[in-house]
From TrEMBL, chains A, B:
Keyword Cytoplasm on entry: yes
Upper classification of the organism: Bacteria, Bacillati, Bacillota, Clostridia, Eubacteriales
Cell compartment(s), UniProt: Cytoplasm
Pfam families in the record: FTCD, FTCD_N
Protein's recorded name: glutamate formimidoyltransferase
One annotated GO molecular function: glutamate formimidoyltransferase activity
Top EC group: transferase
Length: 297, 297
């Protein structure tokens, strides 16, 4: 568990299992560990999660983009989710022992190589973006595959690497680096959506809440409850405990209790330990005190 | 991280580093991971912590007892800590994916083999004890090496395995199985020892507190504070959060705040996750959601 980078590439194939399996296998050969895979037929899109040492993750991402280029033809692709290419988005995420700068460097190195060797135009986004207007993925993906074919020669849409024309079957790819994202939901002991919405507003950055929180009110019809559904996009600076305790504080003004919470999907150990240290008022805890961490060190 | 057993053998050598290193090396060859080592010259005793798959841990423990038998002569051994033999105490501890019954079985298999092949008398203790009066280590070790030489032929002191006479240089060994122990200290915002002692009494099992808590009041002179120093001997049934929150509750009656806590040494991941789940009011958290756990699965 020395240097650990996570990579969560999205591919424009959510129906043919053998294609997604081949892409996954191409990455697995590079010595990374596959952690999760979701395929969505409506979106016609797959999300693969894997992790490993930085260099192995770089090689795996390259091999998977190459495999996707060989097997996915964007000319025949339809799905509900916006996309630019066969391999659509490839973010590197620092998990432990790695700084964001190292993931940005991985993104740039991968982008340069994909542009040069695979003849696919590459856009860098989020922390790896080369200009402010390319930080946001939705902005980079504007017009999707079909639209970008026309616009790629415009100065503001020139790729960061690779040819200034779409690859005839694989389109373009967006590569970048971002922080780990934690999907954290807090269930409330009421069915009143106005309460969930009010608390979501109080929590989220854009309405005056916590800087690295995105939040929505959600109805849980079967439970007769409502939920504050959050994305914590920088758990080091806006940790889980702070989001939860602020929800609790806001809910109290309505006399509404927190009845439970859930973390969706994978979460880095450091995010959990950080919040536990708050609650335990730890003075000197080190992650190496976790027996399993020491064991895999 | 499938099946994981920890083993914390104690050896009657705390001065000659090369002896302890040789014992450690003998174990390491069996495919376990060494996690910690403490040597104490006054006690003339070493404690080695290692972990691995059950069979590897069994083989390593055997190899280390054999090595200790070859290198340590109890006839010349002096130290402040009570002891019966060269390899003195060998507990197996279930960490993850393993039940206590499996560790008891490991203890019995190791004991049988050590008695038969190494000609060392073996006593089983704690969860592996064959009679109630041998559960407590202090009772098994009564009289120490010198005393047991005389008493070993008495019916109540007959070993569970091996010869009914002390090994001429290695003495006897106590082998068993126990739960992981968490050393957890809570620091209080006062220098009043009567408060620390009162809270320790309220917390510990023998005075009406929590069943699996041992607690003492301790003075932290340099800090001008006092501490409730606890051993949590079954964190599943008496978890960390319950001990901490009960200290907080008792301290409140004296108007004394908890100013910080510390966990000493290694702690199993499940113990931390269990307490975090309490504070987060988790409804459905699974340890496989920890990215690093999934990675090493």
């Amino acid at each position: 568990m020395s240097k650990l980078v996570e990579c969560v590439p999205n591919f424009s194939e959510g129906r043919r299992f053998e294609v997604v399996a081949a892409i996954e296998a191409a990455g697995e050969k590079c010595g990374v560990k596959m952690l999760d895979r979701t395929m969505d037929a409506d979106h016609n899109r797959s999300v693969i999660t894997f992790a490993g040492e930085p260099e192995a993750v770089l090689e795996a991402a390259y091999a998977m983009i190459l495999e996707a280029r060989e097997r996915i033809n964007m000319e025949g692709h339809h799905g509900a989710h916006p996309r630019l290419g066969a391999a659509d988005v490839v973010p590197f995420i620092p998990v432990s022992g790695v700084e964001m700068a190292e993931c940005v460097e991985l993104a740039r190195r991968l982008g340069e190589r994909v542009g040069r060797e695979l003849a696919i135009p590459v856009y860098l986004y989020e922390e790896a973006a080369t200009r402010p207007e390319r930080r946001n993925l939705a902005d980079v993906r504007r017009g999707e595959y079909e639209g970008l074919k026309e616009e790629i020669t415009r100065p503001e849409r020139r790729p960061d690497f690779g040819p200034v024309r779409m690859h005839p079957t694989a389109g373009a790819v967006v590569i970048g680096a971002r922080k780990p994202l934690i999907a954290f939901n807090v269930n409330l002991g009421t069915d009143d959506m106005t309460v969930a919405k009010a608390i979501a507003r109080a929590l989220r950055a854009k309405d005056g809440g916590l800087t690295f929180v995105k939040a929505l009110g959600v109805e849980l019809k079967e439970r007769g409850q409502v939920q504050v559904s959050m994305n914590l996009v920088d758990y080091r600076r806006t940790p889980v405990y702070r989001a939860l305790e602020l929800v609790r504080l806001e809910a109290a003004r309505y006399g509404v209790p927190v009845v439970g919470t859930e973390i969706v999907g994978l979460v880095p150990l450091d995010a959990l330990l950080g919040s536990l240290e708050y609650y335990l008022q730890s003075e000197s805890f080190r992650r190496e005190q976790v027996l399993e961490v020491k064991l895999h060190a």
